[in-house]
Specification:
This is Magnesium chelatase. The protein is of the alpha/beta class and about 325 residues long. The protein has 2 domains: about 100 residues, no CATH class; about 200 residues, von Willebrand factor, type A domain (Rossmann fold). The protein contains 11 helices and 10 strands. It is elongated, with a radius of gyration of 31 Å. The chain starts with a helix and ends with a helix.
Length: about 325
């Protein structure tokens, strides 16, 4: 990041070079004042002639004056800030793991049923103009619902998810990217920003490499928000044998990091609900640059007013 990203007219910042010069001049003047004061040996007489000033108030007045100058120069350079503007439209693809490990009951009544319930709440909480798509993640990922604003259809698609074999994280990401391309264009022909929310409770066991799919998502400017769902002690009975099914947090964290998304771990339905709320806030806004000159000018004025009051207090004779 350079100065041109922070200020609209960064060349005006050269005025800040005056500040260290003023500080040096103040220090030299203070030292000279002390040396001049040492010439008077009769301090009692001097105290009657010249009223003693408060040192801390004098230093405070100077410091506030300098702060006022600094903030006014920054305002003069027209600084940029960041404002969070609600998105008018977006396409959210919800990828839900439906592998056999989602039958684990460490999250009541089961991982899959709890995930379906909280996912439905999440979908209903999204702005009505957002497109929602649903992808099931197993050894054979599939789009269960293409992008639509119809929340009733989205709820039906999530409710109808059933357990399947294996987990192909990479293939599921590719399917989700294809679903985003299916979203209707805007009136101006532009595509709505796409985001993938991927919930998985296990490790990748089939299909293409997840990190290769993440690289494609990054290339397409599609962030993937990942959720590692379930506890380390989760287990299921497969072919008469009890298998531990801990979530692969490292893989989920890496996918999120590579694509600019967020990562969270959820060990209960309550945790998952809070994670979804956080993701909703994350995907619902765009960060837009906004000039903040008025704010900095206000800071400068405030410092100047307090500095003036401090200076007046130096010359006032208080009872």
């Amino acid at each position: 990041m350079n100065l041109s990203d922070l200020f609209l007219q960064p060349e005006r910042l050269w005025m800040l070079a005056v500040v260290p010069v003023l500080i040096l001049a103040y220090v030299l003047a203070t030292r000279r004042r002390k040396r001049t004061g040492m010439r008077f040996t009769n301090t009692a007489v001097l105290g009657r002639v010249v009223r003693k000033q408060s040192q801390w108030r004098r230093h405070l007045a100077v410091a506030l004056s300098l702060l006022s100058l600094i903030t006014l120069v920054l305002a003069w350079a027209r600084p940029n800030g960041v404002d969070r503007v609600p998105r008018e439209r977006a396409t959210i693809v919800l990828v839900i793991d439906v592998s056999q490990s989602m039958a684990a009951t460490d999250v009541a009544p089961s991982r899959l049923e709890a995930a379906k319930s909280t996912s439905i709440d999440f979908v209903k909480s999204l702005p009505e103009q957002y497109n929602v798509a649903v992808v099931s993640m197993s050894g054979n990922p599939a789009t269960r619902l293409g992008p639509t604003t119809d929340r009733t259809m989205a709820v039906r698609a999530i409710t109808g998810l059933t357990l399947q074999d294996s987990t192909a994280v990479g293939d599921a990401i590719y399917v989700a990217l294809s679903a985003i391309e299916m979203a209707p264009k805007g009136n101006d022909g532009s595509a709505a920003p796409g985001t993938i929310v991927l919930l998985s409770d296990g490790q990748n066991t089939a299909g293409r490499a997840p990190l290769g799919a993440a690289a494609q998502a990054k290339s397409d400017s599609v962030p993937i928000h990942t959720i590692a769902y379930g506890t380390e002690n989760g287990s299921v009975d497969l072919d008469g044998k009890r298998e531990r099914v801990p979530p692969d947090a490292d893989l989920m964290r890496t996918i999120a990091s590579e694509t600019g998304g967020t990562f969270a771990a959820a060990e209960s339905a309550g945790d998952l609900s809070r994670v979804y709320q956080s993701i909703r806030s994350e995907i619902g806004y765009d960060e837009v640059k906004k000039e903040t000159t008025a704010n900095w000018a206000g800071y400068g004025l405030a410092f100047a007013v307090v500095a003036a009051l401090a200076a007046v207090s130096l010359g006032a004779r208080w009872p």
